[in-house]
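Students often ask what a holo structure prediction actually looks like on paper. The answer is less mysterious than it sounds. You provide the chain, you provide the ligand, and the output is a string of discrete structure tokens encoding the 3D arrangement of the protein together with adenosine-5'-triphosphate.
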Amino acid sequence: MITIENLRKSYGKLQVLKDLNVSFGPGKVVSVIGPNGAGKTTMGKCILGMVLPDGGDIKLDGQSVLGKHAYRSQIGYMPQIGRYPENMKIRQVIEMIRDIRKDAKEVDEELIGLYNLKSMYDKRMGALSGGTKQKVSAALAFMFNPRILILDEPTAGLDPIAAEILKSKILKEKKRGKLILITSHIMSEIEEVADEVMCLMDGQLKFHETIAGIKAQANEERLGRAIAKIMEED
Ligand SMILES: Nc1ncnc2c1ncn2[C@@H]1O[C@H](COP(=O)(O)OP(=O)(O)OP(=O)(O)O)[C@@H](O)[C@H]1O
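The corresponding structure tokens follow.
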């Protein structure tokens, strides 16, 4: 589904992605982990076309996406921190995005319902709590039934019930054959939802393995310990 080949990206002198190679298939939840600043968000933004790589390629179903736009409608994105016009009401933000995506065949309002967002439709974005803003971001990411979802620390700031709702949604959409990339630092969450873990270290792929494979490789039952063991290996 997505293939990343020799991807390079620098910000000034800082080399963030250094010849990154990795591929992801459909019907999988892949947890993207790695130390702060390892390049996880940058990789996601390169896939989304929000950051232009300096070299290498990103292919969707074998076709390069670089310099193209239309493919983006197949990807839902939930940013780490959603930024919205402060004065717009939730209703207006949702209507605006629906208007931009008039072409979408299917509109999925499940999260709007589960998060009871309609009861807050007239609140302004600038007046929302961080968690409520996250709920709006989650609802928008899933809204147009994209084949691919890129979720950047999606449960950070969500209360436990809202986080459970999101995790169930992730698993439901995975069963429908979607590819879901999730950046997370929470081991219990990774173990609950992910099939595979991709670890970025210093802009390169440290490993990309199934959860069972990681535990077997490290000879550790606890995922957190297994990952720490592999990350410490040279
Ligand atoms: N627009 C930018 N301009 C300059 N440097 C940037 C920019 N965006 C990211 N960086 C730098 O690139 C590096 C990688 O950032 P990135 O956000 O991809 O890391 P990350 O793995 O997602 O980190 P975290 O776990 O903290 O979210 C960091 O050192 C960051 O400061």
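Residues 11, 14, 16, 34, 36-42 surround adenosine-5'-triphosphate (CB under 6 Å).
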